[in-house]
Design a protein that fits this description.
Two copies of one chain form a homodimer. By secondary structure, chain A is α+β, with helices and mostly antiparallel strands. The first copy, chain A, folds into two domains: about 1-60, Winged helix-like DNA-binding domain superfamily/Winged helix DNA-binding domain (Arc Repressor Mutant, subunit A), CATH 1.10.10.10; about 65-145, Lrp/AsnC effector binding domain/regulation of amino acid metabolism (RAM) domain (Alpha-Beta Plaits), CATH 3.30.70. The first copy, chain A, has helices at about 10-20, 30-35, 40-55, 85-95, 120-135; strands at about 55-65, 70-80, 100-105, 115-120, 140-150. The structure holds a DNA duplex. Chains A, B: One of its GO terms (cellular component) is cytosol.
Chain lengths: ~160, ~160
DNA sequence: AATGAAATGAGAGCGCG
DNA sequence: CGCGCTCTCATTTCATT
């Protein structure tokens, strides 16, 4: 599946709309219009344009992991042995395919991957480490950071203005 | 403002609804109903109930950071000097208040905080480190991991079933 | 107590000036 | 871009199990 994504120019109206949608996308276009001094149809056209360009990637509900029994959030730094392109790609695909891996970044620095993992119990995490890290010949080592407090969570992008 | 959050029991219908909403919350209730074998009003009531209980925390648009000029995602591990309750609370509040800090977790392990930072340029990041880390007496040291690839991004919680 | 069917109302979508 | 229409969808009511 191809992600539609091409560059478009965003003016201050677009940014103002994004600022609202990224906080609450159920805000009526009418209300958005009042907030940014635009008519509702104008707001709608701009939203559609940003969706088509891939600026707006999705509309989703944010769920409290604790209330659905996935109480534990864990950070993992992963260091690999070989960094050849195909081995890195394989690792990316494997990490990304695991539902418990909520986020995965390929990074520079003292580690190669940083993962955010969400699991119901520590033993579930232990099982995951066996499968994902100990079961992978190319993983040199990994470091675990268990979250005691999710101080700030979100995907909100800092927008100029 | 207080976030309403109290425990409720979720059945398999609720989980099925959540699975859909966390992927696309613009899905019509009619369509959700067909997918889970429930009428639209029943779906509506269950969604409202989960919103009121705090299971559903928000409805948001996901924005591509690159297309809005915030091209750089960075992981930061922060280690503090003193871990007294009030100093930790102060750090939590300071980190959480910064727009560029997209996510902040208080963790166990070799670091005390893990941050996900989104900035337009490396010099913006450098300025942020001066303000947030070098300008804070209680920060012992911090380690930076610059994301070369956002392999998997989201807040989707793994749901049983 | 929770559901589904039907009626109401709000909001999204579209063509027009 | 804004105005006004149409139509879909969300929301309420009510009878039913």
């Amino acid at each position: 599946m191809s992600k539609a994504s091409f560059a478009i120019t965003l003016d201050s109206f677009d940014l103002a709309i994004l600022r609202i949608l990224q906080r609450d996308n159920s805000t009526p276009q009418r209300v958005i219009g009042e907030a940014v001094n635009l008519s509702a149809p104008a707001v709608q056209r701009r939203i559609r344009r940003m969706e088509e360009a891939g600026v707006i990637q999705a509309h989703v509900a944010i769920i409290d992991p604790i209330q659905v029994g996935q109480a534990i959030t864990i950070f993992v730094e992963v260091e690999v042995i070989s960094e050849t392109a195909d081995l890195i790609d394989a690792a990316k695909r494997e990490f990304a395919s695991v539902p418990e891996v909520q986020q995965c970044y390929y990074v520079t620095g003292e580690a190669d991957f940083v993962l955010v993992v969400v699991v119901p119990t520590m033993s579930a995490y232990e099982a995951l480490t066996r499968r994902l890290f100990f079961g992978n010949n190319n993983v040199k080592r990994f470091r675990t950071f268990v979250a005691m407090d999710r101080v700030k969570v979100g995907l909100a992008v800092p927008l100029p203005g």
